[in-house]
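Question (not urgent): is this output format expected?
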Amino acid sequence: MHFLRKREIRLLAAAFGLLVLAGCGGQSTSEKTEPSRPTIVFITDFGTANDAVALCKAVILQIAPNVRIMDITHQVPPFSIEDGARMLSDVPRYYPAGTVFLGVIDPGVGTSRKAVIVKTKRGQYFVVPDNGLVTPVVDRDGFDGAREITNPSWMIGDKVSSTFHGRDIFSPAAAHLAMGEDWTTAGPAVDTLVRLNPRVATVEDKGISGEVIGLDDPFGSLITDIQGEDFKNLGYALEDKVTLTIDKKPYTIPYEKTFMGVPIGQPLVYIDSRGRVGVAVNQGDFSKTHNVTPPVSIFIPREK
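Got this back:
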């Protein structure tokens, strides 16, 4: 009896061990990679003082409840397609193929301008008004086709307003894309898109003539259209004094690598994170301090 009890105990222990191993093995083999959630990246000039953004997101989630909605900004200056294009242009580089970008800066809402889906050669989709908003992206990433959104099933239904296509056309179209639906069913092909033709800085013998194109809010630093490499070719080295004009007013400002290169409250010229010339005040607001409101001219002479 004593022998049998020991033997039974050993058998039970062995069986328990096999069950544990089987359970562990089953757990490892049954583990699955979490499927990636579709992503919509959203930019508008709607602001945050009303319900427009919330309504657009509600429409999206009714169609694609598992979608992840990321915001670029909803503070694009009202009606400014150029600012919207600038704020949108760099973001797609940090998202993978298949990402859907939803952009609604649409002063022509309700007119004959087209609502389109644009696909780039990076495999990303842009649901936007055909007003030039995606020009910088397409110029960089390549054009792989476009469709006009005319299929009612890609819209909110038969009650499309004449003033809120962000809710009624663009948001549902973005949601259908995020659900993996065939984008070619949204409407007919569009071969040519409306283009923006933004002013670019001009390199001359005397220096570079450009424009202050925006503000790096909330800091009030000036964003210019002068490329950093063009500026460096003028002959300036770090810590050199740069005598430039902004809106025809002269300033003498040091060229620095970081904001802390100058004392708090002092201005500096620097190359910003996008490779453009910027003008700032260390822990201050250059725009407010010097009453500069874009767009205004800027001229940087060659180093003498």
